[in-house]
Amino acid sequence: MEVLYNSTRSKGNPVKASEAILKGLSDDGGLFVPDHIPALDKSLRELSDMTYQEVAYEVMKLFLTDFTEEELKNCINRAYDKKFDTEEIAPLVEAEGAYYLELFHGQTIAFKDMALSILPHLMITSARKNHIKNEIVILTATSGDTGKAALAGFAGVEGTRIIVFYPKNGVSPIQEKQMVTQKGDNTLVVGIHGNFDDAQTGVKKIFSDKALAKEMDAKGFQFSSANSINIGRLVPQICYYVYAYAKLLQEGRIADGETINVVVPTGNFGNILAAFYAKNMGLPIGKLICASNDNKVLYDFFRTGTYDRNREFVLTSSPSMDILISSNLERLIYRIAGNDADKNKELMAALGGQGKYEITEEMKAALSDFYGNYATEAETAEEIKRLYNACGYVIDTHTSVASAVYQKYVAETGDQKKTVIASTASPFKFTRSVMNAIDEKYDSMGDFELVDELSRIANVKVPMAIEEIRTAPVVHDKQCDVDKMQEVVKEFLNI
Q1: Which long-range contacts (CB under 8 A, 24 or more apart) does 342-351 make?
Q2: Range of the domain at 296
Q3: Position 468 in a domain
């Protein structure tokens, strides 16, 4: 059955998957959502015998219904290849009774690789299908990981250019080095004077500028997005939850149909929304445990039903979660409002105006699949140390937030279901925070000395992504104020 995509902010005019991927954001500023969530059409047992690539096809074919089998398999096989340093693509590691789903074995060592390795292929295929002649300009705001993963995915891809904005003082040194050393004539990286929410708001503003879109079109360009607002980012993320379940089943760690819980460290809400979609496809998931850091806007939302971004923005050791406007939550709000675009638009207008909105009691009742909690900076560091001391397994700061929240969930509920924790980044991406958590004596070491020490104590080889930037020259050193973002875009495109 064909799946079409509607905007969360207006009725009518549904588009095909390829059109939604190309546009990124709807013309009315809404996000594209499927008109229904398709059910898995292979049994869990059948899925358990498949490779990652095969599972990805079985999931994605149900959402991207205007892609042919050949087109979709070509995209999948080109994405999930030798760029990943493990054959499983997303291995599961058991530690202290939980299963850590390692989503960081791609070329930029963060979970964003899982979707951004395939997005360029989906986008180029979509452009061909829709007879697009314009050059596609990928415009992206990043809180640290999306930027490099998108740059790596789109660098050198014919018919595309990519511009990444990141908060100048809001990412880890390794994250910044990964981005500013990116090669490719079609790439631009810009540090903005502000935080991630400023960058994200600036990008959305550029997207919704009709006059600029007209000017761009006249010059042979059109915008699209590589952020998780793009449905082409979200659909590939559903695959790894299905794969994780299938893998546990294959290894005899769970019974066929047994319910598991899933914990996701969450900032922009895309990764946990993908797990929610997987659950609604028929995957036996019980609780979706939403883990926040000190920027606990989502925890407060799940507790009170009020989403309020009017608060201090905290820079933490888990910068990819330093977000106060969780864009993908809009897709969930639309759904729990009964797919009511007018109600959703009203709430989003309140968020844009007063900076907050409150959902109805009926909508609140529809959130029963979710549990929210948060971990402080001290708790995040303590969990890294606890897990390392207990079993020698080293996790990064974001995964630690999830792990700490999982401990709180079990203590609070007594729920002992088998649990998958989304491990979203390699500890090598946040070496100083990770190593200081294990022992403060490491603080006197240089960044790359810490990399080698982490490799030694964790007994894990230094990832290629880190080796590459040890001596790589800085290619991008541009900075700008938030109100100058559009100027920077026009200058790069010579318009």
Answers
A1: 342/11, 344/8, 344/9, 344/30, 345/8, 345/9, 345/10, 345/30, 348/8, 348/9, 348/29, 351/307, 351/309, 351/325
A2: 92-109+233-461
A3: no
Counting the structural domains of the chain, the total is 1
Q: Is the pTM of this model over 0.90?
A: yes
Q: Write the pLDDT tens digit of every residue in 109-119.
A: 999 999 999 99
d(CA 313, CA 331): 23
The CATH number of the domain where 451 resides is what? 3.40.50.1100
| Per-residue pLDDT tens digits for 204-226 | 999 989 999 999 999 999 999 88
- The answer to whether 103 and 111 have CB atoms below 8 angstroms apart is yes
Give alpha helix (H) positions in 32-118.
44-48, 52-63, 69-79, 112-116
Q: Which of 59, 58, 57, 53 is nearest to 83 (CA)?
A: 53
Distance, in Å, from the CA atom of 180 to the CA atom of 172, rounded to the nearest integer, reads 12
Strand ranges in 298-452 using DSSP code E only, listed in sequence order: 306-308, 356-358, 370-374, 419-423
Q: Considering only CA atoms, which of 417, 66, 55, 77 is closest in space to residue 237?
A: 55
Pair of tokens at residue 330? 């809009």
Residue 57: C-alpha distances to residues 97, 376, 449 (Å): 30, 39, 41
164 bridge partner residues = 140, 189
Burial class (CB in 10 A: 0-12, 13-18, 19+), 372: buried
Tens-digit pLDDT profile for residues 273-290: 999 999 999 999 999 999
Beta bridge partners of 224: 138
Residue with tokens 């995509």, as numbered in its chain = 5
Say if CB 141 and CB 202 are below 8 A apart.
yes
Residues of the chain with pLDDT under 50: none
CA distance 143 to 219: 30
Query: Any idea how long the chain is?
Result: 495
Q: What gap in Å lies between CA 47 and CA 39, rounded to an integer?
A: 14
φ, ψ of residue 87 in degrees (nearest 5) = -65, -35
- Residue 198 in domain: no
Query: Could you tell me if residue 151 is inside a domain?
Result: no
Domain assignment of residue 217, yes or no: no
Question: What tens digit of pLDDT does each residue of 327-361 get?
Answer: 999 999 999 999 999 999 999 999 999 999 999 99
Reading the block at residue 275, the tokens are 């797990």
The DSSP 8-state label assigned to residue 462 in this structure reads P
pLDDT score of 12: 84
